[in-house]
């Protein structure tokens, strides 16, 4: 393949956003985080990937320091619901992070039963959107495009 024939990264026509990417404290998976990070970066966004097994206080502290435009919590282990509730409560309890937009997605429960209840609880806890397992990552691009305003991060407000 010649250099001119290489595929070029896709660039979003929207402004670049700062994304804080994480898993819950019980989720040790990394492949999902790497996949999402590369996808978002290829579309022109800046991503800080906290890695697996992120304690809630580390998430809050990092969000306070970085003022992300969006917090994305990805779950693969089936305990995203419990981890997500703790993360949302911690972020929403802090005055500097309570308005940061948050989304969660992936395997949020270990069985399909109760999915609607889990989704409602996560939305009630403060998530702006809950993505079911199998939702394509392009949903994140739509969320980022819909943030509006300057790219300064809402946590600083």
**What CATH architecture label applies?**
3-Layer(aba) Sandwich
What is the molecular shape?
globular
* Proportion in helices: 25-40%
The order of strands across the largest sheet is 2-1-3-4-5
Protein name: Glutamate mutase S-chain
GO molecular function: cobalamin binding; metal ion binding
InterPro entries: Cobalamin-bd, Cobalamin-bd_sf
Spell out the blueprint of helices and strands.
Blueprint: E1 18-22, H1 31-42, E2 46-49, H2 56-66, E3 70-75, H3 80-93, E4 102-106, H4 115-125, E5 129-131, H5 138-145
Parallel strand pairs: 1-2, 1-3, 3-4, 4-5
Helix pairs in contact: 2-3, 3-4
GO molecular function: cobalamin binding; metal ion binding
Pfam families: B12-binding
Protein name: Glutamate mutase S-chain
Q: What this model shows, in words?
A:
This protein is 36% helix and 15% strand. By secondary structure, it is α/β, with parallel strands linked by helices. A five-stranded parallel beta sheet has the order 2-1-3-4-5, sandwiched between helices. Strand 4 (102-106), helix 4 (115-125) and strand 5 form a beta-alpha-beta unit. Helix 2 (56-66) packs across helix 3 and helix 3 packs parallel to helix 4. The protein is globular, with a radius of gyration of 15 Å. Mean pLDDT is 88; it is low at 150-157.
Tags for this model:
157 residues, alpha/beta, Rossmann fold, 5 helices, 15% strand, disordered C terminus, Cobalamin-bd_sf, Glutamate mutase S-chain, Cobalamin-bd, cobalamin binding
